[in-house]
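INTERNAL TRANSFER SHEET
From: sequence group
To: structure group
Subject: Arginine biosynthesis bifunctional protein ArgJ

Please process the attached sequence and return the structure record in the designated field. Keep the field labels unchanged so the import script can parse them.
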Amino acid sequence: MGQLTTFTQVKDGSIVTPKGFSAGGVHCGLKKTDRHDLGAILCEVPAVAAAVYTTNVFQAAPLKVTRESLRSGTLQAVIVNSGNANACTGQQGEADAYDMRAAAARHLGVAEQDVAVASTGVIGELLKMDRVNAGIESLPPRLSSANSGAEDFSQAILTTDLVKKEACVSVLVNGKEVTIGGAAKGSGMIHPNMATMLAFMTTDAAIDQEALQQLMRQATDVTFNMITVDGDTSTNDMLIAMASGLAGNEVLTPAHPDWEPFAEGFTYVCRSLAQAIARDGEGATKLVEVSVTGAVSDLSARAIAKTVIGSSLVKSAVFGADANWGRIIAAVGRAGEPVNPETVDIRLGDISVLEQSRPVAFDEDEALAYLKGDTVRIVVDLHGGAGQATAWGCDLTYDYVRINAAYRT
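Return from structure group:
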């Protein structure tokens, strides 16, 4: 394990590393391949829970069911399928989501209102409920508190993702080790204000429910809401956190002396998952990071960073390893935020290409070599205030078009 500020990254940690959690996955036949497509997370006890959801007006049926379950502020299980979004499926889709919740509660031995439901995949198709129900029935013996259970769950939630996304840290609270784990999926239809992503976080911390909800919103604003792959926001996005309380610490609130270390660790897990989603964007070859400093406020910096990272022209230039800073400055200027057009600096990594809004002579070969790397950092300094923000995305490639041109076929 390597020390990172006030928390420690847990090597090979996962969503089952916190005390009280198990997970697993199976193939029930929703996908054309034999990859897992149904998974569950189970907590030994009702866990304090919180969630944030997509801002898309068209919200999939599972979101309604999960919102209802979370009214009590607790959850004990999450049931998730991939391969079918169960979105825009009318009353039947809603009934199917409720049936998933009931079946999961029955077979996992928990209260129905303590089960969250999530789905991801193709929009507008009804679930094959005979397969889903058979899969749920087969899940309980597959759940494990070992990393194999987390591995199966992580695989079960993937769609066009190429790799699983996991992160885990530990932090001392009242002198006791508290662990925070996370797993996510997301590769396409990714845009700020949530995206086609599902993310699940577990912790064994004892924490106040309102404090957990507040922390989740704050962390989401600077992590998951700062990524984009293609400018599309999905119907199914959901981030759920569950806290078992089994670490034995005093209940965490913002007034707790160890709140800041816990919040920093929680945000780190969110950021790691968000960056992994951006890096695994459909067809992507590079992770792109845009850091904006010197804005009039953090909110303004976020808007500018998201505009640059979401520019198709910027993303295409990065794919082509073209140091075309004109596309970057154009994106900054159309973000709708206060910017002095005479004071902007731009760097590609450590290579300065613009100073005080004027071109700087730079080595094209050096820039080409930098842009051919697998991580590209664009730095924009506006020299207009103390606001700052960072956004993450990826390059726009031929493969993105290929993948999405044949998504259903």
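Handover comment: The chain has a mean pLDDT of 90. The longest helix spans residues 259-279.
Transfer complete.
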